[in-house]
Specification:
GO terms for molecular function: ATP binding; protein kinase activity. It is built from 9 helices and 20 strands. It has about 525 residues and is an alpha+beta fold. The radius of gyration is 26 Å and the shape is globular.
């Protein structure tokens, strides 16, 4: 491998143009780059010539490239045969969990939903024989497209030189720590895992979440404790067990945009000053490389460096909601000039005073016809449009075949998806892979609402987990002519698709664009459409 310096403008494999170095630590560098053939942004990791595990990192990336769960960052390319070894992965724009918690913890229902999605994704990785072993709040990103992304499966363990005799239990602990952080805005793991304040602990054991933050249900608190070995509850053994447990607690649907909204800050009694996290003895061998700069959302984020473990946490973001690329690392900002702040405050006071005087009118307080301000107490907000469950008038099979193939099985048991019973019996035939054996590009059902309606949300019960379930709405019976409302992986229960803004049309399509595995077959239960008449 060449020892030449890699700098912005360098092209790898004749197509990946490096544009901005995001981080440089632990013997590797993370770049934002452009794939000039496909004209898209990608994340590229390059390696120092002395990095001892280049071949292992490239091999792990190739293994991760076979993962199909959309919540796991996709690896596009990995090569160590040329002058410079590299790994190319999906560029993820959004907000890491650590950034969401910089002001306050999440609302418990949303925290449970977020970690349920993460648990499902890690469970899919384990089913493929891969694990993470280094999960922190920097590795979970809520994207600008309104989806969950988990970074670093398979590759982070190599970059940080971590291994475990029980990878499932280690990843359950990592997910449990992230859920603890989401609920409390405190980190119960090693200090170099997060810049969040350390969780309060007694005798090396973190306090239960309910002792740190009010408003957490007993059910969610018990799940966290079982993940982290707090108390006497039976430990959760695998990410799939954690996903199953979270499926049974109240969860709040996630919004369709980055930024999840935070719960009110904890009271001073509940927010103790930061102190070093308890030194626990996990069953892993943590030989970590130097810790990362602020997290970059790539499939292979920079390793965590102990050299920065005592660095001050980043300043909290502004109170306005702002979405930034999860890869970006802004430099330190200069402190504001106190004199300018004082002048601005004085000017604002004058402006507010003049505005209040103008609104009060010049006719005095007794002027009954003066152009004074409107009495807000007499003004009511416009009524919100009512949303009710709508009754479909019919249902038919929907398929986008390739080469004239038609799946006759999808025409059976159609009425079971609108009979009011969750345990419907509609299903496809079994296929050789998640892409329908290349016979179709989508299989599902088309609901005829009888007339155009305004769809607010669609709730779908599916007894399978994995794959990709998609909802479309419009006035055509052709799937490709309908407007896409959303897509997500089924979770073995009910999933909700919110139309924001509301979608209008006579037809509602619910179909699989990728099949869940084991066997590769799609199944649907009840489908409920909520909205208003068009």
């Amino acid at each position: 491998m060449s020892t030449s310096v890699i700098e912005p403008g360098t092209r790898l494999a004749g197509r990946y143009r490096l544009e901005e170095r995001i981080s440089d630590s632990g013997g590797s560098s993370l770049w934002k780059a452009i794939d000039e053939i496909l004209a898209r942004a990608v994340a590229v990791r390059t390696f120092d010539p002395e990095f001892p595990r280049i071949a292992e990192a490239v091999t792990s990336a190739r293994s991760a490239s076979r993962l199909t769960d959309p919540r796991l960052t996709q690896v596009f390319d990995a090569d160590d045969s040329g002058e410079s070894a590299y790994i190319v992965s999906e560029w993820v724009a959004g907000e890491p969990l650590e950034g969401m918690l910089s002001k306050a913890p999440l609302e418990p229902g949303r925290a449970a939903t977020l970690l349920y999605e993460a648990s499902e994704a890690i469970s899919a990785a384990h089913a493929a024989g891969l694990s993470h072993l280094c999960l922190t709040p920097r590795d979970l990103v809520w994207t600008t497209g309104g989806t969950v992304k988990i970074l670093g499966v398979a590759t982070d363990a190599v970059l940080c030189d971590r291994s475990s005799d029980d990878s499932a239990a280690e990843d359950v602990r990592g997910l449990g720590r992230m859920l603890y952080a989401a609920l409390t805005a405190h980190w119960p793991g090693d200090e170099d895992g997060s810049a969040l304040p350390a969780a309060p602990a007694s005798d090396g054991v973190p306090h239960a979440p309910r002792q740190v933050q009010a408003g957490i249900s007993h059910g969610v608190d018990s799940i966290v404790c079982r993940c982290l070995g707090i108390g006497t509850g039976e430990p959760l053994a695998t990410p799939a067990d954690l996903a199953k447990a979270l499926r049974g607690v109240p969860r709040t649907p996630l919004p369709l945009f980055a930024g999840l909204g935070n719960a009110p800050p904890a009271s001073p009694r509940q927010t103790p000053p930061r102190r070093p996290a308890p030194q626990q003895a996990p069953p892993t061998q943590p030989h970590r490389q130097p810790a990362p700069e602020p997290p970059a959302a790539s499939h292979v984020p920079p390793p965590r460096a102990r050299a920065q473990r005592h660095a001050s946490p980043p300043p909290p973001p502004s109170t306005s909601t702002r979405t930034t690329p999860a890869h970006s690392h802004g430099g330190p900002k200069r402190p504001a000039n106190p004199a300018l702040i004082g002048i601005a405050a004085a000017a604002l006071t004058v402006i507010v005073g003049l505005g209040a005087w103008a609104l009060s009118g010049t006719g005095g307080d007794d002027d009954p016809k003066g152009g004074g301000a409107t009495d807000n107490s007499q003004t009511s907000a416009p009524p919100k449009p009512s949303v009710a469950k709508l009754a479909p008038q019919g249902v038919s099979p929907a398929e986008r075949p390739v080469g004239g193939h038609v799946d006759g099985a999808i025409g059976k048991n159609l009425a079971s998806v609108i009979d009011g019973k969750p345990s419907g019996s509609w299903e496809t035939q079994s296929y050789a892979d998640s892409d329908f054996g290349r016979y179709s590009k989508g299989l599902g059902v088309l609901l005829d609402m009888g007339k155009p309606v305004k769809v607010a949300n669609v709730k779908v019960y599916s007894p399978v987990s994995g794959g990709v379930l998609q909802v479309r709405v419009g006035d055509s019976q052709s799937p490709t002519d309908l407007k896409r409302v959303g897509e997500q992986a089924p979770n073995g229960g009910e999933v909700a698709f919110a139309a924001n803004p509301q979608a209008t049309g006579r037809y509602v399509l619910v179909w699989f664009t990728k099949l869940p595995g084991g066997p590769f077959k799609g199944r649907l239960g009840e489908i409920a459409v909520y909205g208003a008449a068009g």
